[in-house]
Amino acid sequence: MARTISFTEATLEAMREEMRRDPTVFLMGEDIAKQGGIFGQFKGLPDEFGIERVRDTPISEAALVGAGVGAALAGMRPVVDMHFADFITCSMDELVNQAAKLRYMFGEQCTVPLTLRAPDGITKSAGAQHSQSLENWFVHTPGLEVVIPANARDAKGLLKSAIRSNNPTLYFEHKALFPRKGEVPDDDDFVIPFGKAETMREGGDATIITYGITVGRALEAAETLERDERIAVRVVNLRSLWPLDYDAIADAVAATHRVVVAHEAVRVGGVGGEIAAFIAEHCFDDLDAPVIRLGAAHVPVPFAPVLQEAMYPKAPAIAAACRDLVRKVR
Amino acid sequence: MTHTLTPDAPLADSEISLATALLQMMIRVRVLEEGIERHFLAGEIPGFAHLSIGQEAVAAGVCAALRRDDYIASTHRGHGHTLAKGTAMRAMVAELFARADGVCRGKGGSMHIADFSVGMLGANGVVAGGFGLVVGAALAARLRKTDQVAVCFFGDGATNRGPFHENLNLAAIWNLPALFVLENNHYASTTATSETMKIEDVAIRADGYGIPSQIVDGFDALAVYYGTGEAVERARRGDGPTFIECKTYRVRGHYIGDPERYRTKGEVDAHKSDDPIVRLQARLGSNLSQRDFEGLWEAAKSEFADALAFARASAQPEAGEAFRGAYEGDRDPETPHGAFAVREEAAF
Amino acid sequence: MPAEITMPKLGLTMTTGTIVRWMKSPGERIALGEPLLEVSTEKINYEVESTAAGTLAKTIGNAGDEFAPGAVIGIVAADGETLSAAAPVQPVAARPPATNGARTIASPAARRLARERSVDVRAVRGSGPRGRITLDDVAAYTTVAPASPGASPGYPPELPAARRTIFRRMSEIALLPLAQVETVVNVDALQALIERRGDFGWTAFAVVAAARLLREHPEIRTDARSGAPHPRCDIGVAADTPSGLLVPVVRDAERRALRETHDEIVRLARAARDGNLGAADFGEAAFTISNVGPQGVQRVAPLVDPPQTAILGMGAATRRPSVVKQPGTNFDVVAPAWSLTLVLSFDHRFIDGAPAARFLAALAARFADPGMLL
Fold first, then answer.
1. B194 and B161 housed in the same domain
2. Same domain, yes or no, for C225 and C109?
3. Can you give the pTM of this predicted structure?
4. In this complex, is the C-beta atom of A330 within 8 Å of any C-beta atom belonging to chain C?
5. CA B220 to the chain's CA centroid
6. Minimal C-alpha gap between C129 and chain A (Å)
7. Is A133 on the interface with B (CB under 8 A)?
8. What CATH code is assigned to A198-326?
9. Fewest CB within 10 A of the end CB: N or C in chain B?
10. How does pLDDT run across A72-103, given as a tens digit for each residue?
11. Residue B56 falls within a domain, yes or no?
């Protein structure tokens, strides 16, 4: 059985279920307890779990993340909310030099079961310092896990898995996804395992490999291509960027021979590069055309709506890339 | 609130065994540090090593006032803290020698030595890296409703970094069972405190966060012990954090091999009389015979010799170990992390 | 830019392709991938699909015209485009193949498929950007030359060189829809005639009978290349030689007498065995006969030899039980008689069962009653 609920509600359910299930799970961040989160994603939690387990912090990202790491070392299971993913920059040492490395450096004497929630992405003219997608920095940091939900179902399943994971996990939730509704299973043990992509749509002419909010844009592109041009495109939702489902990528290339990799994060140096390089190295003979990467332009995100909308890939651009591959333009 | 203890008062009978135990710990730290110095210079220890010779009283005094289940976090200069908290010397020396039997399986080394079995949350290669860990551990104790405390060792240099300020503030507002123990040895790497701060006593920074503080003679192990004991009691009672500034000095360079161009030999020599071991021995006076005193040194040297032999005989880590241990689950090839580790290893 | 339609390269050895017919006329709409014209080579006929969508603006060349591979034979204008009158399009001698200097540009997947099918990727026409050879280009190429297992143009390593042409030709035949009709004839009379006269043999009789009947049954001599009857009734005669099967041709067999035909057949067979066949003795024929009688075998169902569309197989005349009327009565009795099995194999794309059967029946009637021929 399943119900249709919003992404916000799905994450809230995940938090509630995990906090009920495990008393070591607690939550801290800015504007959590009293405000309920700027997207309403923590509403009601202090009432049920109390303000010891749902803590507002001062604007002290370094201490917030550092304390999260310390509490994790000492046997708790903290969920730390960054407010905006852009502010992770204020706690990079705590995340990269501490959380990511302690288990390895200390010879596995400890685990760091920390979950970092980070609302990210371009929406509503939030401007350059509140619109970034920084997941590639953390895929590039050994010791961290990185997951990115594309819909309400992913939101719940991945957050539950992130909390249960004994590795430090970054959970990037696109701000524009919060109000979107989707079907979510009733089961309160519903988890999505890391390292497993989901094929959202089948098709033999090309594949779009993507994640996060771009999954919806890719599905839109695929719909249009099918309806108007009888081009059938497979859409692969990675869900988990580290660990990465390399097998799903290889299977898609073997089946369709033409690939577009798309994400909202900046194209240069983005996760799309890792995927394209993997394909070139390990799926070379399956390729009938070059791998096309789509991502935001190499500029900070501008404020003016007309400028903001011009610099990252949406459904038409994704469809055009697929069309170019299938029509042998590229 | 700041106060200092009266140095050099005669020992009460009840203090003799405590003082002897503190002396023994300081001697063990001294022997370990001098041994590390010798063998680093002989090329048996890779990487960097930062010695705490001269600062033994802080390590010994603080840790003697803690329980095994209390937490500490240390700095790049953490050998003394690690030993004083209860780690076996064998496991420490093997770690510095980069052997598989090292306490961190050879993956951490001097700057990242840790022993979770005694609550030692690691030496840290990032200055001020320990504050968050200690605040978090203190928070965990509070959430689990235990009376554990968490102690952060740090140097004067760390007090100029952002996390110092953020974490002291957080510990204060949440009333956490944390101790912030500053080993003010007046140098952050090559820069003297006279150049890096406007103030003389760093403890007044704690006032800014509403945290009570002490200023303690860091060469006096008993003073450190008593000061710590007071702070630990406060914390266990639920009365919140304390800042303890230990005035001390390191007689060796910042790291082994440091040419020490930032201070004169005269200055270093002037501090020789601050040797905490000599000071405590003098304080014990006739309560500790010369023979017993020498016996402490013999025992420590014998312990080091044993640790050295153990380290030298210990195997190098297997090459495959490089690819595992970053993630829980990565030793199991059935998990995504484990499967990737297998591919990664094969690629090399 | 208007799109050029070029003569495809349909095989490694193709030097020219002949336009058979245009399937669209200038001014007609054409879709991407829609068949545009039919071309033929020595080996096969092929439907060329349009590589552009729009309107067929111009055709260059008519049925029967030959072009080199790569030559421009048509222009398709996209919607909204017109051809400028000031720039008439000349047939280009040959579009360069998909090479970049010395390199052939082909996608990795195309190269892999070419390797698997033992195709030289350089022989394939590329439809991708900048002439890149893509997966479906190789796939299409290898269905032109049949891709059934074991029929790849790559030769088995131990195959004698002399068999290569046969190997290739048989590979091409493999996909043809061949059917057969068969009949058994009482040849007592013909057997007696051959013995009595002694100046002709069974093959010669078959050649003359078939040639004359082919004049009256034009569909049996359809040329697969054109779909029209072969104008002459030259008959190929399968000969077994030390280097394998050869098929020398008896020219104008319908006009020859039995003895003359027989002499010619003997001459050809000897020349074939000795390797002395002349140019005129080879090549184009309207029909072929394969006689396994000399080997003492009763029946053969041979394979058609393209571009021919029918072939006759005949076995040895054999004593067999036969149902005959008891002389002077109306009773059926079983008596030994000379019996010959005739099999007509035919390409069902051009010849149906009934016409094939009628031809065979007519031929069989001649065998049964040789007087019809004399």
1. yes
2. no
3. 0.70
4. yes
5. 16
6. 5
7. no
8. 3.40.50.920
9. C
10. 999 999 999 999 999 999 999 999 999 999 99
11. yes
